């Protein structure tokens, strides 16, 4: 389940992220910051099954807390207000955000000890790779 995702992960590679941010409507100035940021992803789970996903950068720290399969309101790092649901499918944490008639999907999975986050908006796909901190 989610246990394999628990820990602190550091961004080591990012492909096509600027195109993805453009596709979801992020402004140029915010994209500049987004492209420079090298977030740490901190994932934990408490005794009640509440999952915390924190993204820490020198610019901004955002955190969402959620239970799998339960929709919640999220304010994203780029200030979109979304309806979000996160499910666990085929070993992946699948996050779906819906806002203003749009929808994006983030698929996080562990491959070869690394966490990959695939960000999908229509036909634009970005892949961000994180390595676990020792």
Automatic annotation (TrEMBL):
Belongs to the calycin superfamily. Fatty-acid binding protein (FABP) family. This is Cellular retinoic acid-binding protein 1. Pfam families: Lipocalin. GO terms for molecular function: retinal binding; retinol binding. Keywords: Retinol-binding, Transport, Vitamin A. Cytosolic CRABPs may regulate the access of retinoic acid to the nuclear retinoic acid receptors. Residues 7-24 form the Cytosolic fatty-acid binding proteins domain. SUPFAM superfamilies: Lipocalins. The keyword Cell wall biogenesis/degradation does not apply. InterPro entries: Calycin, Fatty_acid-bd, ILBP, Lipocln_cytosolic_FA-bd_dom.
């Amino acid at each position: 389940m989610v246990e394999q995702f628990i820990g602190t992960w550091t961004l080591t590679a990012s492909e096509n992220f600027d195109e993805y941010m453009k596709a979801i409507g992020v402004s140029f100035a915010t994209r500049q910051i987004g492209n420079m940021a090298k977030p740490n992803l901190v994932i934990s789970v408490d005794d009640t099954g509440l999952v915390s996903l924190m993204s820490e950068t020198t610019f901004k720290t955002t955190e969402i807390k959620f239970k799998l399969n339960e929709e919640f309101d999220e304010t994203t790092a780029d200030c979109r207000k979304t309806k979000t649901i996160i499910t666990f499918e085929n070993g992946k944490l699948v996050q779906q955000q819906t806002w203003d008639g749009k929808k994006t999907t983030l698929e996080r999975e562990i491959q070869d000890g690394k966490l990959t986050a695939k960000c999908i908006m229509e036909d634009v796909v970005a892949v961000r790779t994180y390595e676990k901190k020792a």
